[in-house]
């Protein structure tokens, strides 16, 4: 939004330019200073100022002006980095290779995603035989001029006639659902809006999906999401005529999702959004108006129906099994108390189950790396799948078909597709990517270091084989530590220039994640959240102690919950890091639950409304509320967010940036990069990704005093 001088004056002093000035390598930074308004909240008798509350309303001209000025200042700084353009060109060259996804078979045909190299979005292809000629089925690049419309999910009807597909615009979590006639390849008139956190689960001549009521205009990306409902859409009908299949008005701040068994006999309904798990219900679709029966009620556990084979339902759960197990029940007695173990809990975390060729493939995490094993349907181990090295793996196949493929990757191993012979336990290379990267020049090692309380934390380190442990190497340290999410080994072309120029990529597997099961997760939640920060800080201290690097050569990064991690660790140990990248972070721990789906994170964080003790704990580490203002030197910081992020709303980063820039934290740059027409990260077009990564890595390398060669 372009504002005239008169409009800026009429904004009443909320926004002012050029109040403070710092220097970095000859670059002047004049930050916009936002008016500190007299806004405060009372928490259990404690008054907490929220001076930049007005930045929460991103629909105002004042916020638009502030965003525009911040982006100009950030780009002015980045434009003066001498090697940024060459870095972007190197990233572009590396990314420009053919990327093909794992094939999957549906109704006798083969489907796969492919990106020619620099296409903004990957394209869905189909072919009649595995070695046949492929044709384009769905190209999301044709849905927008700038690549900001992404394909976010597909679902084939059980009769093979239709494909329901979801799109997301500008990275938002809001989805629209369309239906493609697979014979004519023409769109039907079906169009679903305001769907969110849902698939399309087919039954008969329609499908189940979850959606919210239309949000208030102008508040689509910030208002609290409430009253999630499950609907049934019959092909040809207008959305307004869709049948309400399930709602729970008693709990408006919960998620409700539906899945139908392949044989269309049963509807499973999951209710989540409180506790760490979900409630599970089932309805017999063979009987009209049959009741919805609750199978499992304890929200502290996960209950996931996987498959119905004959009269047996298979479930994956962590009920009485913190590292997860595979269970089953008869359709005549499906409640939790009647479930029986198929594959009991083991010493490693069960992360996935595939039903293929009449058998089972179970994927486990062993010290973060994934291992795959073949079992019979009754739970007898047959053999382990031999994988190329320690890394990550994902399988595709059908329970009634013996054609199986899997994708494998690791830090120096690009995503590679194999065809798998399950009976003979043989893997055959199907597609290997041609990346401009000599993996033989690099090595990955896994180390285990002690955290503050002595807990051993795993960390992967990737670097050139000729690295010298002289304490001078630049490090890019990445972490997450939350929501039972595991950071497994994986390949990224974006890291390559940093590694080629002598950098070390370090990935720490902090408590709060899912690397060692639910106990590991719980150890980094609520009143134990400090463990996560201690684990991350200890990672940096270990790297210094072992002579990999020193504090003037460490950059830390993390996104979303990882952005919170970075912000908290910078406040607690600012002298330990040279550069920090808090990306789309949760920075206001007192108000996070008041936006979109923030309430869903209370199982990990707790809320400031719970009780005085929880408020005090959150307030003590909240990145926004603990920025030092006493002259303590802070690292160079580049905050990132996006205007369509309705997962972690940009207000978190806006308020954090304004507070940081107004504080006395030394002359290192404190900048914010606000992407337009983008969201939390998913579906971002490659053109935006390349520019963002060039900006981030050039900021890191510049402020670590690297002299990259391209």
Give an overview in words.
The protein is an alpha+beta fold and 710 residues long. Among the domains are: 69-92 and 437-703, Rossmann fold (3-Layer(aba) Sandwich), CATH 3.40.50; 99-142, no CATH class; 349-434. 17% of the residues lie in helices and 36% in strands. It has 11 helices and 41 strands. The protein starts with a helix and ends in a 7-residue tail after the last helix. Residues 1-27 have low confidence and may be disordered.
Helix-and-strand structural type: alpha+beta
> What gap, in angstroms, lies between the N and C termini?
37 Å
What is the CATH architecture term of the domain at 69-92 and 437-703?
A: 3-Layer(aba) Sandwich
CATH topology of the domain at 69-92 and 437-703: Rossmann fold
Overall radius of gyration: 26 Å
- Structure summary, number of beta strands: 41
CATH superfamily of the domain at 69-92 and 437-703: Alpha/Beta hydrolase fold, catalytic domain
Please give the oligomerization state of what you see. Answer: single chain
* Uncertain stretches: 1-27
Helical segment tally?
A: 11
**How much of the sequence is in beta strands?**
35-45%
CATH class of the domain at 69-92 and 437-703: Alpha Beta
Label the overall shape. Answer: globular
Residues in helix, %: 10-25%
Please supply descriptive tags for the structure shown above.
Rossmann fold, 710 residues, globular, 5-stranded antiparallel sheet, alpha+beta, disordered N terminus
Q: Layout of helices and strands, plus pairs?
A:
Elements: H1 5-10, E1 15-24, E2 27-34, E3 40-43, E4 46-49, H2 61-79, H3 84-95, E5 99-100, E6 104-106, E7 109-115, E8 123-127, E9 135-138, E10 149-156, E11 162-169, E12 175-181, E13 186-195, E14 201-203, E15 206-211, E16 229-234, E17 243-246, E18 255-260, E19 266-272, E20 278-284, E21 292-296, E22 303-309, E23 312-317, E24 325-330, E25 340-343, E26 349-356, E27 359-366, E28 369-375, E29 381-385, E30 392-396, E31 404-410, E32 413-421, E33 426-431, E34 442-450, E35 456-464, E36 475-478, H4 496-500, E37 504-508, H5 518-522, H6 530-545, E38 554-559, H7 561-572, E39 579-583, H8 602-605, H9 612-621, E40 636-642, H10 651-662, E41 670-675, H11 686-703
Parallel strand pairs: 36-37, 36-38, 38-39, 39-40, 40-41
Antiparallel strand pairs: 1-2, 3-4, 5-7, 6-7, 7-8, 8-9, 10-11, 11-12, 12-13, 14-15, 15-16, 16-17, 18-19, 19-20, 20-21, 22-23, 23-24, 24-25, 26-27, 27-28, 28-29, 30-31, 31-32, 32-33, 34-35, 35-37
Helix pairs in contact: 3-11, 6-7
């Amino acid at each position: 939004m372009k504002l005239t001088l008169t409009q800026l004056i009429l904004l009443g002093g909320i926004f002012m330019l050029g109040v403070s000035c710092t220097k970095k390598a000859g670059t002047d930074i004049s930050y916009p200073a936002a008016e500190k308004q007299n806004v405060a909240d009372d928490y259990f008798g404690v008054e907490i100022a929220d001076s930049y509350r007005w930045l929460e309303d991103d629909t105002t001209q004042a916020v638009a002006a502030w965003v525009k000025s911040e982006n100009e200042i950030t780009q002015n700084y980045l434009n003066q980095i001498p090697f940024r353009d060459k870095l972007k060109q190197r990233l572009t060259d590396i990314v420009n290779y053919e990327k093909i996804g794992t094939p999957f078979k549906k109704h006798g045909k083969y489907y796969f995603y492919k990106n020619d190299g620099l296409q903004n979005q990957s394209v869905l292809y189909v072919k009649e035989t595995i070695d046949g000629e492929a044709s384009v089925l769905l190209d999301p690049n044709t849905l927008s001029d700038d690549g900001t419309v992404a394909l976010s999910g597909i679902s084939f009807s059980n009769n093979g006639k239709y494909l329901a597909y979801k799109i997301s615009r500008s990275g938002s979590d809001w989805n629209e659902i369309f239906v493609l006639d697979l014979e004519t390849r023409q769109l039907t008139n079906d169009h679903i809006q305001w769907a969110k956190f849902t698939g399309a689960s087919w039954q008969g001549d329609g499908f189940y999906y979850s959606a919210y009521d239309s949000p208030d205009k102008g508040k689509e990306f910030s208002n609290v999401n409430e009253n999630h409902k499950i609907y049934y859409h019959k092909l040809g009908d207008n959305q307004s005529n869709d049948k309400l299949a399930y709602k729970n008005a008693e709990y408006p701040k919960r998620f409700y999702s539906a899945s139908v068994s392949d044989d269309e006999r049963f509807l499973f309904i999951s209710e989540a959004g409180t506790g760490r798990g979900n409630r599970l219900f089932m309805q017999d679709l063979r009987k009209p108006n049959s009741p919805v029966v609750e199978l499992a009620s304890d929200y502290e556990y996960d209950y996931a129906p996987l498959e119905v084979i004959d009269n047996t339902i298979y479930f994956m759960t962590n009920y009485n099994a913190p590292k997860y197990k595979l269970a089953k029940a008869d359709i005549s007695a499906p409640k939790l108390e009647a479930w029986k173990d198929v594959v009991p809990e083991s010493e490693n975390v069960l992360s996935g189950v595939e039903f293929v060729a009449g058998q089972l493939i179970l994927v486990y995490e062993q010290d973060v790396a994934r291992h795959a094993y073949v079992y019979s349907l009754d739970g007898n181990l047959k053999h382990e799948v031999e994988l190329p090295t320690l890394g990550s793996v994902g399988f595709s196949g059908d329970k009634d078909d013996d054609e199986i493929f899997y994708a494998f990757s690791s830090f120096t191993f690009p995503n590679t597709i194999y065809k798998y012979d399950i009976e003979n336990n043989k893997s055959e290379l199907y597609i290997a990517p041609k990346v401009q990267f000599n993996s033989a020049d690099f090595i990955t090692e896994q180390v285990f270091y002690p955290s503050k309380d002595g807990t051993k934390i795993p960390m992967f380190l990737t670097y050139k084989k000729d690295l010298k442990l002289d304490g001078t190497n630049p490090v890019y340290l990445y972490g997450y530590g939350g929501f039972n999410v595991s950071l497994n080994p994986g390949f990224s072309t974006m890291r390559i220039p940093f590694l080629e120029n002598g950098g070390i990529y370090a990935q720490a597997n902090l408590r709060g994640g899912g690397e060692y099961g639910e106990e590991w997760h719980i150890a980094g939640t609520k009143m134990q959240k400090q463990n996560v920060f201690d684990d991350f800080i200890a990672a940096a201290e270990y790297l210094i102690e072992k002579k990999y690097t020193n504090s003037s050569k460490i950059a830390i990064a993390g996104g979303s919950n990882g952005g919170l991690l970075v912000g908290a660790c910078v406040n607690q140990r600012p002298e330990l890091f040279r550069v920090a990248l808090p990306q789309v972070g949760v920075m206001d721990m007192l108000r996070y639950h008041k936006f979109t789906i923030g309430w869903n994170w209370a199982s990990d964080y707790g809320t400031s409304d719970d009780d005085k003790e929880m408020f005090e704990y959150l307030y003590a580490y909240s990145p926004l509320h603990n920025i030092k203002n006493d002259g303590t030197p802070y690292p160079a910081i580049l905050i990132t967010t996006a205007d369509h992020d309705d997962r972690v709303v940009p207000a978190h980063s806006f308020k954090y940036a304004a507070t940081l820039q107004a504080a006395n934290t030394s002359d290192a740059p404190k900048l914010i990069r606000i992407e337009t027409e983008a969201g939390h990260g998913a579906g971002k077009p490659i053109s935006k990704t390349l520019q963002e990564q060039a900006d981030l890595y050039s900021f890191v390398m510049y402020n670590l005093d690297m002299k990259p060669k391209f």
